[in-house]
Amino acid sequence: MLFRDFNFNTEDYNRIAIMGSTGAGKTTLLKMMAGLMQPDSGKIFIGDERVLGPDEKLIAGHPLIGYLSQHYELRNNYYVSELLDMANKDAATRIEELSVLCNIRHLLNRRTDALSGGERQRIALARVLLTNPKWLLLDEPYSNLDLIQKRMMMQVIENVGKCLEVSLIMVSHDASDMLSWAEDMIIIEGGNIVQRGKPADLYHKPANMHVAGLLGEYNLCDVALIEQLINTSFTHAPSKKYIIRPEYIFMSKEKKGAAAIVTESYFKGGYVLVSCTLKNHAGSVLVSAPPSQDLNVGEEIYLNASSQYVVQVA
Question: 186-197: per-residue pLDDT in tens?
Answer without folding.
Answer: 998 877 888 999
